[in-house]
Amino acid sequence: MVDDRFTLDLMKELLILGQNFVAQKTLTKLASGERLKGWKTGALQIADLERRNSLPEVTVVIVSDIRSWGELNSVADALAAKQGRSTTPSYLIFSFPHHGSQKLRLGKATLNKFLSRFRDPERVQIRMNPSVEGLREAVAAIGPTIDLLRSGPFERSTKKEPEPSMLDKMNRVLEATKDVRTSSGKLSAELLAALYGVTPAELARWLGRTKQSISKTPDADSLQADLEYFERIARLRVGWSDEDFRKWLRMPNELLDEETPIGLIAKGKWQLVADLVADMVTGNPT
């Protein structure tokens, strides 16, 4: 006899993300065929995205249901952060309106900038005005790849551990971030959140965790590898006050294409910001 819980664990999940009733209508149409038989399906309104801690195997975003690029970028940033912290492979399909739409034009430069926020852009698809059958086929085509990835340990295209830095052995630099560690020497999410001037809930979103998990054990072993990025960025305080550090985080930076460091951190580009800090501390910004 097959255990129902085991069968449920093997099911692939499809999530449709949109506004009002559009997401549910799209889901109803997609799930009507045989191609997605055996998939667990669901629809979610964009406003409720933050309530979801992780992404399923496939998320379809109904872009025609989004009013502006500003709103779309906010949605994409949230998805990029969740995809970047996912412990299982997650794919995103953005269903854009027709090329002629005045609301959300998508030229090559715009597309490149849009995709650059994702840690795994090879797991992001752009579909222009697809039919229901086209979307269904796109989702179904990802299925075998997911099954293959499930057969072995999931590995990202980028390293989880921070890149080694020449600052790692400089005691004066390490002393500058001693205050974000507990008495046991472990990095604390709560102490780092306070230093960065963000709430524990916001830091939890960056980490792809729940606020409750951060509050319960802010120095958990499972958090240390991720928090190490934040410690490396905080090394800038070796010559700066906490206030100046927080101001720097929120100022557009020409070395980051006029984006703010904290904005890139929210997108999961922790190594990029950590590398810039290392260059600044050693006096070699490029």
Give the tags.
286 residues, alpha/beta, Rossmann fold, 2 domains, five-stranded parallel β-sheet, 13 helices, 10% strand, elongated
Identify the strand order in the major beta sheet: 2-1-3-4-5
Tell me the CATH superfamily of the largest domain: Response regulator
Largest sheet: 5 strands, parallel
What letter string, H or E per element, gives the SSE order?
Answer: HEHEEHEHEHHHHHHHHH
CATH architecture annotation of the largest domain: 3-Layer(aba) Sandwich
General form? elongated
Output the CATH topology of the largest domain: Rossmann fold
Count the helices. How many?
13
The low-confidence parts are 1-9, 154-159
Helix content bin: 40-55%
The total count of strands amounts to 5
Structural class: alpha/beta
Approximately what portion of the residues adopt beta-strand conformation?
5-15%
Rg from alpha-carbon coordinates: 21 Å
In words, what does this structure look like?
With 286 residues, this protein is an alpha/beta fold. It contains 13 helices and 5 strands. A 5-stranded parallel β-sheet has the order 2-1-3-4-5, with helices on one face. The model is unreliable at 1-9 and 154-159 (pLDDT under 50). The protein has 2 domains: 4-150, Rossmann fold; 166-282, no CATH class. The termini are far apart. Helix 3 (69-85) links the parallel strand 3 (58-62) and strand 4. It has helices at 4-10, 22-30, 69-85, 108-115, 132-150, 171-175, 189-196, 200-207, 211-216, 224-233, 242-249, 261-266, 270-282, and strands at residues 13-18, 40-45, 58-62, 91-96, 124-128.
